[in-house]
């Protein structure tokens, strides 16, 4: 029973396996499956964890080794821009800072203790994503209710869908992680993210996917962000979706545009290379498709030629067979006719002598202008003279015997009205007659 269950499970999750393999570029299907199983088949968390491993960040499921990982900075360098809160200046600033410091320490300490204790009572719901699309749509609605509709166009879909679209369209993907409880979030949303120049810049150059840590907690854990607001730039690099830049903290509109421009210019060569490579692959695919179509057309033409040749050969064979069958039938007919002539010849009565007073001398004129002479008796039936003519080789297959004057056809063969043909005497023949054999074969 274990084998069928495993097979059924693999069939149900094949689509996720193929999608994860396409996004990460992993060749081993077993490794893809192990990674997805570690993330409880959450493809978004698995993809992001894999991206961070490529950048040198330890996996959330693999503790860092005793020795730090050796990261190839030429291939996995990630640009980071972190804006810290300004330090207090002047006597008034330091006085305000020192007065508020105990209250801040007390507030954040109590908040951390409360959150720590709450974990024992109720697990953090952010780790469980049951409806990724619904959570993203809910965040967008909440964001617009609080900050209005002046913002970059939010991608209304899951993180993996945004990655797929960015990869397919060869565009940058800007991911915004919204920290609702952070003190700089409101100012960033109202003063930076909602400005016209930022909205125009982002909408024209990249996809923008945003969510809070509630609906993408695993992503937040994997990126190890230091502070909020947090932005990550992702693009297709070396055939893999890679994080190429991070922006953290309260960034002003002009700085945000400049930093995004810097990241795009630094990685533009990779994107151009991917576009050229994809165009080359598309051209190769089109060329291969054209070659395949030409081959199929040639193959169909050859098959059609072979089919016509076979049909012609079959028709020729059938015609030859018909000719052969016809020849065999004619040969059988000729032999049967010869045998019948011989039989009729053997059955003929003997020719009477010339001085027999009851004899009749008849001269037959055949269709080929030959003459045949024979004597018969008056009391013999007309059938006898018919059989005599039939036994001759020169006589046609079908014929009738005709008198010259008066012209009449002699009834030599039995009919329904006259089953017994008349005798020569009854037919009115004299002792010497000339009869004509008329060919009826064509008729």
Descriptive report:
- It is found in: Cytoplasm; Lipid droplet.
- GO terms for molecular function: ubiquitin binding.
- Residues 355-437 form the UBX domain.
- Keywords: Coiled coil, Cytoplasm, Lipid droplet.
- The structure is a single chain.
- With 443 residues, this protein is an alpha/beta fold.
- Helices cover 54% and strands 15% of the residues.
- It has helices at 2-12, 14-24, 29-38, 43-54, 73-76, 90-121, 132-147, 159-169, 185-193, 196-205, 217-223, 253-347, 382-391; strands at 79-83, 172-178, 206-212, 230-237, 240-249, 359-365, 371-377, 399-403, 408-409, 432-439.
- The strands form 2 sheets. It has a 5-stranded mixed β-sheet with strand order 1-5-4-2-3, sandwiched between helices. The chain has a 5-stranded mixed β-sheet with strand order 7-6-10-8-9, covered by helices on one side.
- Helix 2 packs across helix 3 (29-38) and helix 2 packs parallel to helix 4.
- The longest helix is centred in the C-terminal third of the chain and has 95 residues, at 253-347.
- The chain is rod-shaped.
- The model is unreliable at 1-7 and 60-76 (pLDDT under 50).
Features:
443 residues; alpha/beta; 5-stranded mixed β-sheet; 13 helices; rod-shaped; disordered N terminus
Describe what is shown at a glance.
Residues 355-437 form the UBX domain. This protein has 443 residues and is α/β, with parallel strands linked by helices. It is built from 13 helices and ten strands.
């Amino acid at each position: 029973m274990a084998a069928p269950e495993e097979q059924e499970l693999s069939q149900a999750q094949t689509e996720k396996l193929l999608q994860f393999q396409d996004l990460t570029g992993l060749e081993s299907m077993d490794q893809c499956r192990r990674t997805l199983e570690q993330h409880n088949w959450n493809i978004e968390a698995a993809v992001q964890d894999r991206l961070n491993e490529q950048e040198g960040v330890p996996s959330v499921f693999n503790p860092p080794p005793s020795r730090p990982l050796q990261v190839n900075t030429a291939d996995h360098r990630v640009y980071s821009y972190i804006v810290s809160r300004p330090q207090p200046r002047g006597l008034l600033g330091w006085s305000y800072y020192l007065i508020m410091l105990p209250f801040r320490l007390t507030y954040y300490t109590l908040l951390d203790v409360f959150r720590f204790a709450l974990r024992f009572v109720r697990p953090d719901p952010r780790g469980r994503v049951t409806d990724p699309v619904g959570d993203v749509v809910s965040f967008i609605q909440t964001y617009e209710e609080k900050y209005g509709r002046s913002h970059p166009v939010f991608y209304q879909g899951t993180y993996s869908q945004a990655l797929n679209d960015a990869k397919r369209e060869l565009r940058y993907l800007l991911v915004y992680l919204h920290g609702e409880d952070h003190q700089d979030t409101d100012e960033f949303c109202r003063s930076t993210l909602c400005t016209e120049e930022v909205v125009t810049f982002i909408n024209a150059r990249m996809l923008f996917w945003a969510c809070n840590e509630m609906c993408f907690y695993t992503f937040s854990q994997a990126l190890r962000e230091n502070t909020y607001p947090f932005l990550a730039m992702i693009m297709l690099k070396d055939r893999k979706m890679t994080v190429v830049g991070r922006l953290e903290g309260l960034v002003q509109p002009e700085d945000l545009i400049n930093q995004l421009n810097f990241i795009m210019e630094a990685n533009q060569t990779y994107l151009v290379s991917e576009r050229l490579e994809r165009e080359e692959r598309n051209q190769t695919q089109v060329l291969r498709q054209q070659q395949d179509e030409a081959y199929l057309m040639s193959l169909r033409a050859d098959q059609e030629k072979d089919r016509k040749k076979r049909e012609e050969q079959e028709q020729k064979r059938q015609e030859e067979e018909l000719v052969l069958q016809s020849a065999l039938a004619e040969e059988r007919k000729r032999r049967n006719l010869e045998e019948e002539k011989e039989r009729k010849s053997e059955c003929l009565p003997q020719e009477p002598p010339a001085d027999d007073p009851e004899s009749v001398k008849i001269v037959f004129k055949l269709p080929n202008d030959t003459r045949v002479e024979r004597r018969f008796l008056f009391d013999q039936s007309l059938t006898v003279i018919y059989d005599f003519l039939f036994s001759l080789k020169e006589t046609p297959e079908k014929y009738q015997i005709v008198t010259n004057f008066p012209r009449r056809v002699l009834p030599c063969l039995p009919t329904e009205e006259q089953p017994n043909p008349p005798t020569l005497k009854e037919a009115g023949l004299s002792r010497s007659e000339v009869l004509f054999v008329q060919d009826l074969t064509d008729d």
